[in-house]
Amino acid sequence: MSKIVYKFGGTSLATAENICLVCDIICKDKPSFVVVSAIAGVTDLLVDFCSSSLREREEVLRKIEGKHEEIVKNLAIPFPVSTWTSRLLPYLQHLEISDLDFARILSLGEDISASLVRAVCSTRGWDLGFLEARSVILTDDSYRRASPNLDLMKAHWHQLELNQPSYIIQGFIGSNGLGETVLLGRGGSDYSATLIAELARATEVRIYTDVNGIYTMDPKVISDAQRIPELSFEEMQNLASFGAKVLYPPMLFPCMRAGIPIFVTSTFDPEKGGTWVYAVDKSVSYEPRIKALSLSQHQSFCSVDYTVLGCGGLEEILGILESHGIDPELMIAQNNVVGFVMDDDIISQEAQEHLVDLLSLSSVTRLHHSVALITMIGDNLSSPKVVSTITEKLRGFQGPVFCFCQSSMALSFVVASELAEGIIEELHNDYVKQKAIVAT
């Protein structure tokens, strides 16, 4: 019997009405495994709880309880919200939050949502078994961004007695060798779903979200963006890594290893279809075409010229970046010049300025703030003719343009932030919408 894994994100669980839709889907389709995120906004509240003063934590706790109690009231089912949230009470007494405390606190969101969805399905006559994520997602010792130990997970999986037709599992969380709660990182519920799929040898993963698939560009930026019927894993990986927020990048690896297709669709309009992500792209083109665009705002670009000043070259620059915990979004090295992009939401301006001071000791270093990263995903985009064509088009916009040619499937540019949406719109209209060849 084939196994299918369903995953529902936080927006799919944001209200009582949404939870009813989710439970309708589960009770109708009866998937083998259901993975759920925390209710939308709850993880952010739990992060706020950790960073607040003792007095402020009481207020945040009331917000967390209130959000869940309102949903339970509208669902009209008995559910012990206060029993769950009582796990936070000890943290009203001591201010210090360790990494282990942080993981335990944030895991509450998924623990509650899994229990709540299970309770609602039970009232509709479908009893989901409960598969504790901490007994299945086994990881290293990092509390905030743990890495799964796949060999250990596979060995443990074969010892499980899974006798029920359908199970619910918390996303985002797992446990280390000591049995302590760990987190897979924000967005990790997607990762949980595909890891379960790999372990169970599932035939399909369905990601239910608030949009019906992957689009040629974020519809919030380009109103007439089009849904993409299918993508290869590599194309999806590039999109996810460079700004597309629908899927969490690491979640693709288990399905890539096991050859399991992913279907992305809407909880609220599933009949409109979605996007398939396959091991092999069935719509590959031998002409240079752009299939989709992604945009990352709030970036900074740093160029390092070590031609004259005796810097140890790329190896020394990489060493400095690593020693300061800086992982660039993108990097290119050419003719004794290294250029890299940093995400301002991850790396503070103060940390960037300190890095530039260090690099300037042995090189000519320039830092550009207020830039955006535009990435084009498609086929055969690495030729000089394609790069030249796109660069020439961008010359019509005032402001600096830096090019990063990554692979035949991905071509990125760094542009002035205020120009980014205009550039995206022109590229989308000229190449994506028209399905036009970029260069002949």
TrEMBL record:
Protein name: Aspartokinase
PANTHER family linked: ASPARTATE KINASE, ASPARTOKINASE
Residue span, Aspartate/glutamate/uridylate kinase domain: 3-266
One matching Pfam family: AA_kinase
Pathway: Amino-acid biosynthesis; L-threonine biosynthesis; L-threonine from L-aspartate: step 1/5; Amino-acid biosynthesis; L-lysine biosynthesis via DAP pathway; (S)-tetrahydrodipicolinate from L-aspartate: step 1/4; Amino-acid biosynthesis; L-methionine biosynthesis via de novo pathway; L-homoserine from L-aspartate: step 1/3
Keyword Amino-acid biosynthesis assigned: yes
Coiled-coil regions listed: none
A single GO molecular function term of this UniProt record: aspartate kinase activity
Chain sites annotated for binding ATP: 7-10, 209-210, 215, 245-246
One of the GO biological process terms: threonine biosynthetic process
NCBIfam families: asp_kinases (TIGR00657), PRK05925.1 (NF004579)
EC number(s) on file: 2.7.2.4
UniProt record similarity statement: Belongs to the aspartokinase family.
The keyword Nucleotide-binding belongs to this UniProt entry's keyword annotation: yes
SUPFAM superfamilies listed in its UniProt record: Carbamate kinase-like
Keyword terms: Amino-acid biosynthesis, ATP-binding, Kinase, Lysine biosynthesis, Nucleotide-binding, Transferase
